Structures are given as structure tokens and as C-alpha cells.
Amino acid sequence: MPVTSTPLELLKSWIGPMVRFGIVGAFATAVHYGSAMAAVSSGIDPLASNAVGFAVGFSVGFSGHFGWSFREQRAGLTRSLTRYAVVAALGFALNHGLFTLAVRHGLPTAPSLACVLGIVAANSFLLSKVWAFRRDRRQPDPA
């Protein structure tokens, strides 16, 4: 039997995770940046440093989203980690692709990057909410 929700319940089921996703994402981004810059300042190649920053930021982002942003969805750890890695890879590809198009078409850098980041963040939130952290219906409810 389908579960029915009031419009307010449906809105709450999206607003809370969206706000938490933004907070975790901002923190993970700051950690990525800080880690990458620390690696650069220690003499590591900038591209390698960015990879280090991405890995550290990814860890922070996954931990925060699994444990806080989407905790109500009670998804399995391994499944969520695998799917979140796909979401992150798609986000990076979309970011790089859209930003490359903007730069090559002579669009201003700062506004272009801001738009691209907004598009990627919205896409990442939607994929995380409806796919990466969704509990498999065959999985027993841990509550």
C-alpha cells in the first residue's frame, strides 16, 4: 500500500536534507581547498595536490552526507559509498565540461564558474537524494 504524505511533509523531506547537503558540501569544499593548498605549499605538483584535496574532500563529503544529510534514508554503507563515488565523478565531469565550454566561448570566468557550481550542486543533491543514499526497498528497516 503506498504511503501518502501531506504537501508539508513532502516539503520537509526535501528541505532538511537540502540544507544539510549545502552545509556538508561547503565544508567538504573548504577541506578540499585547504588540503590541496597545503600539499602545494609542501612542494607537491598542483594537479597532484588537487587530487589529494579531492580525496580528502570526498571522504568528508561522504561521511557528512551519509551520517547527517541523508540519515533518514537509512541506506547501506557500501551501496551508498559506491553510488556517491559515481555521483562525485559525474559532478566533476559535468563541472569540467560546462566550465570548459564557458571558457572556450569567452564567457566571464567568475559568473560562469558560479553558474556551473550551482548546476552541479543541484544535480549532485538530486542524485544523492533519489539514488546514492536511497535505501534499497529489499533491505530491512534498521529502526
Automatic annotation (TrEMBL):
Membrane-spanning ranges: 21-41, 47-69, 81-103, 109-128
Protein name: Putative flippase GtrA
Pfam families hit by this protein: GtrA_DPMS_TM (PF04138)
Top-level taxonomy: Bacteria, Pseudomonadati, Verrucomicrobiota, Verrucomicrobiia, Verrucomicrobiales
Predominant place of localization: membrane
InterPro entries: GtrA_CellWall_Glycosyl, GtrA_DPMS_TM
Keyword annotations from UniProtKB, A to Z: Membrane, Transmembrane, Transmembrane helix
Recorded family membership: Belongs to the GtrA family.
Domain GtrA/DPMS transmembrane, residue spans: 20-133
GO CC term (a single one): plasma membrane
Annotated localization: Membrane
Superkingdom of origin: Bacteria
GO terms of biological process kind: polysaccharide biosynthetic process
Membrane topology reported for the UniProt record: Multi-pass membrane protein
